[in-house]
Design goal:
By secondary structure, the protein is an alpha/beta fold. The protein has a single domain, classed as Alpha-Beta Complex (Spore Coat Polysaccharide Biosynthesis Protein SpsA, Chain A), CATH 3.90.550. It contains 15 helices and twelve strands. β2, α4 and β3 form a beta-alpha-beta unit. Keywords: Cell membrane, Glycosyltransferase, Membrane, Signal, Transferase, Transmembrane, Transmembrane helix. This is Glycosyltransferase. Pfam families: Glyco_tranf_2_3.
Length: 458
């Protein structure tokens, strides 16, 4: 059963205390090394510690925006349009998505599905069948565009609803929590917020060992990465699975969005990065952790590799665009600069650690491996603040216990593939599936109650 994920206050406090103690010990370790073992590598290590400390402290102090009754009523008057581009999607997953939209505690005004050149009509058949039971208050539309790319497919939906106040972009392999939209639009009660990232969890997280490892690192990229930068109002990239944007910002940059080129080549990927970047130019970009969706994770190494290569390519050209475009007064500019600097520093430190130190007759190997394992657990502590009704505490503990192995996988995903992404940065296409690659299997039930006062849906 897929249900509401909830952040537990007591768990959060306990995890914060443990993390604070670990960071204190870690800081003492670094100060000792700087005094007694000064070197360029220690300096890089110290910078990495400062970044880790910022990430963990800022993430642990993140608070979602909660609405007063008056603010909630005013937001109920906002027109929300859900935009779903579809391409060769698993019909069962697509059906689960449609059902999850229909079961929202705050129903959107419109759902617009745009088929971007699928090679079969399975999703259209599913949509036509679902429409017969869709809520009468929900406007629905399905368009087929041919193979025009995800950005132009989204633009069809943007153009079709000139009255929309908020666009909610959802990927076709994603199932929404019953309160995803209600929680996701809450930050727009503040006029300076232009974009909201939702929290994505693995829909198929228990499928195999790879999905478990990917789920842990994927979830932490939200609970650590985006939650920490959200404190600065500068989430630099949302995830296409669930994100919200002010419609006037989307319209302002829509032409640039669909006509963007990288070194003269049209771009069809990086849609989420660019929509977030445009929003960052106009205001603050945040995450709302209570706005939850469940997405299909790659279940084999080939699919994961192609997905992450695409992400890294957009990291380089998208980050370069933001550095050129964003004013220095925006924290997002400095965050991206630090990400690029981190890439350069890691390019020096990584071979030194692997080739020089680990080759010293194994003297450094065991302490280093223990050090990496402890860091893995420290970075993953916030995983315990997440309460998933489809996951027992024992299952959660078992996934947490695999944190060092998730870090090992990230050595490939976030280091090796980062260099490969840079080497192939001019490849601006989608580069993933031509047919359905990940399927749901059984259609999940969406919507048992875990938040007090929430409506039970089974």
């Amino acid at each position: 059963m897929i249900c509401v994920a909830q952040i537990g206050r007591r768990r959060c406090l306990a995890v914060s205390l443990v993390s604070a103690a670990a960071l204190t010990a870690y800081a003492h370790h670094h100060l000792t090394r700087i005094v007694h073992e000064p070197s360029r590598l220690v300096a890089i290590d110290a910078l990495a510690f400062c970044w880790l400390a910022f990430t963990l402290i800022a993430a642990h102090t993140h608070r979602d925006i909660r609405l007063t009754a008056g603010q909630a009523r005013r937001l109920d008057d906002r027109r929300v349009t859900v935009v779903v581009p579809v391409f060769n999607e698993d019909p069962k997953t697509f059906r689960a998505l449609l059902e999850s939209v229909a079961r929202q505690s705050r129903l959107p005004q419109r759902l617009h599905v745009v088929d971007n050149g699928s090679t079969d009509s399975d999703c259209r058949v599913v949509f036509d069948d679902w429409v017969r039971t869709a809520p009468a208050r929900l406007e629905v539309r399905y368009d087929a565009t041919g193979r025009v790319g995800k950005r132009r497919a989204q633009a069809v939906a943007f153009d079709a609803d000139p009255e929309a106040d908020i666009f909610c972009t959802v990927d076709s392999d994603t199932v929404l929590d019953p309160h995803a939209i209600r929680e996701g639009i809450a930050p727009f009660s503040r006029a300076d917020i232009t974009s909201v990232a939702g929290l994505l969890l693995g829909l198929n997280h228990a499928q195999n060992l790879l999905t478990r490892l990917v789920d842990l690192s994927y979830v932490m990229s939200f609970l650590n990465g985006r939650s920490s930068t959200s404190r600065l109002g500068s989430v630099v990239v949302n995830c296409g699975g669930l994100a919200f944007y002010r419609a006037d910002v989307v319209r302002k940059y829509q032409h640039a969005y669909v006509t963007q080129t990288v070194w003269g080549r049209p771009v069809s990927s990086g849609d989420d990065r660019m929509l977030t970047g445009y929003s960052l130019l106009e205001g603050r970009t945040v995450i709302q952790e209570r706005s939850v969706a469940y997405t299909l994770l790659p279940d084999n190494l080939s699919h994961l590799t192609r997905q992450r290569l695409r992400w890294w390519r957009s990291f380089f050209w998208g980050g370069g665009w933001l550095i050129r475009t964003c004013p220095l007064s925006k924290p997002g500019w400095w965050l991206v600069l630090w990400q690029f600097a981190g890439f350069v520093l890691n390019s020096y430190a990584f071979p030194v650690v692997l080739i020089v130190h680990l080759s010293e007759a194994g003297r450094f190997a065991l302490p280093f491996l223990g050090y990496v394992a402890l860091l893995s657990y420290l970075r993953s502590m916030r995983y315990f603040t997440l309460r998933r009704p489809d996951q027992t505490r024992l299952q959660q503990l078992m996934i947490f216990a695999m944190a060092p192995f998730s870090t090992l996988l990230n050595l490939y995903v976030c280091t090796v593939l980062q260099y490969a992404g840079l080497a192939t940065v001019l490849k601006t296409g989608w580069s993933t599936r031509q047919t359905v690659e990940v399927s749901l299997g059984a259609v999940p039930e969406v919507g048992a109650r875990t938040v007090p006062g929430a409506e039970v849906r089974t």
